[in-house]
Amino acid sequence: MKILKGRVIVSGGRLQGEALVSRMPISFLGGVDPATGVIIEKGHDLNGKCVKDKILCFPHGHGSTVGSYVMYALAKNGLAPRAILNEKADPVVVVGAVLAEIPMMDKIKIEEIRTGDILEIDCEEGIVKILESKPCI
Amino acid sequence: MYLTREEERILDGEYGWACQVCMRILVKLGELYGATRLIPISSAHISGISYKTIGDAAVNFLNAIIEKGAKTRVFSTLNPSSIDPCLVDRLSKGLVEKQREILKLYEMMGAKLSLSCTPYYEYAPPKNSNLAWAESSAVVYANSILGAWTNREGAPSALASAIIGKTPNYGVHQSENRKPSILIDVQFQPKDEVEYGALGYYVGRIAEDKIPFLRGLKNPSLDELKQLGAALASSGMVSMFHYGKEQRLTDKLEVVTVEGEEIKAVMDELSPSKFTPDMIFIGCPHCSLKEIEMLANLVQGKKLKDNIEFWVCVSRYVKNKGEKFIEIIKDSGAKVLTDTCAVVTWTDKLGIKKIMTNSVKAAHYLPTMNKAEVILASMRECVKIAYE
To answer: Catalytic residue at A68?
Structure first.
């Protein structure tokens, strides 16, 4: 079992979930549909994937600061990710995680995580455990 | 980060959820960027007003905090919306109603419906005062020209600061972070406001997050510097620039030379082809009184050609102050719009596909936000095309 350490940005206790991992930054405004939770940005490596209940892992956010409000709308619509893991926190995602009350950590080596991995995260201590790793294909 | 007892109470929710969530935004951003405390601000300028840019997601949030009693604690101005009275009949009822709902929400919160990207014409913030302004062009103008201090806030953080009346003291709120960190040696003389914009655009790209000192500008006007700063903020992440001669500030800095060639390349990139425009757009950022006067002098006694719209976008404040110039401009057949601009309204829904503008910032945003082709030309050239 692999253990990663990070920094807690928005605390949220211990939780488990399935990882959805992007190698690309995410712009929530225009990039994620708040009505469906699906990533709609053209050319994005998660295009067509739904973020609902996933532990969403991506390097950092980018784009308009209105993206924070999109994260709030996702939460209100019951479509928010269960947690967010970033390499580097940026203001759009930090503010969005505060508004939407999504547990969030940064300084995580997300290249160690693959989509489909089952993670247990401790969003008080800043610890990510990869419980089940998806085999390399 | 140090918090006063009252700030801690707000954070703990004793003043209700609206204040609590706003305080959490400020504290999280402060922690992220190494602030040591919150400092009072003399004003907030809030972006995220146009329904076109914020959509329903933001409306939900605004409704939620207003329901919980959110009120602005400091003088708070608003960025442009997506409608002007003269556009109301040309846009769908649904869009107009959504926009009106948003304006009502901000008004209920106590913000002033200034609806302009140039709040500084109406309210020039005191020198060295701390602000929490969103709208990158206004941030650059405030820091670089007015000598007030503000980070580049986003829509939610400016709103949170308006409601709390404070901002975390990181970034350019610290004097050591306001020093120039790259020297731009300008080896050509921009011939008009468009070239000042192109210079800003080029510098924004190479400076990245460094604060540029521009050496070699010869007596630029405030309006030319406004164009430079707006473009700088469109292509880069900086929140201010320096200009002038002060050699002592620029010792030991990395030096980048800019010549006419670089500016021509920017112009070719943003304005790749020649065409006859459907629309001419002046007023990004919103026009100053001086610009309105210049334009009135250029169009006086002339008649706008058929098949072309001429938009002049200003704040309500400048429109009232420059009434006699506004009348001349209107008499010539141009439209004077307040509360909005060509970028934040739906020009594509109005059937406008080709836009000529003197704003490099607008030229940066119009192709993606409005699906329009852009041609850059100075105000003087725009008038020639549209009137002669």
So the answer is: no
Within an 8 Å CB–CB cutoff, is residue B56 touching chain A?
yes
Q: Is B271-386 the same fold as B5-175?
A: yes
Specify the CATH architecture of the domain B5-175: 2-Layer Sandwich (3.30)
- 3-state SS, residue A105: strand
Q: How far away is chain A from the Cα of B55, in angstroms, using its nearest Cα?
A: 9
Q: How many residues are given for chain A?
A: 137
What digits encode the pLDDT tens for the residues B202-227? 999 999 889 999 999 999 999 999 99
Nearest to A76 among B25, B54, B60 (CB): B60
Measuring CA to CA, how many Å separate B373 from each of B142, B255, B282, B348, B378?
Answer: 31, 35, 16, 11, 17
Helix (H) or strand (E) holding B223: helix B222-235
pLDDT tens digits, one per residue of A73-127? 999 999 999 999 999 999 999 999 999 999 999 999 999 999 999 999 999 999 9
Domain ranges of chain B: 5-175, 179-267, 271-386
pTM of the model: 0.93
DSSP state of B179: S
For an interface test with A, give the residue of B1, B11, B25, B106 to mutate (most A CBs within 10 A). B25
A16-45 residues touching B, CB cutoff 8 A: 34
Architecture of domain B271-386: 2-Layer Sandwich (3.30)
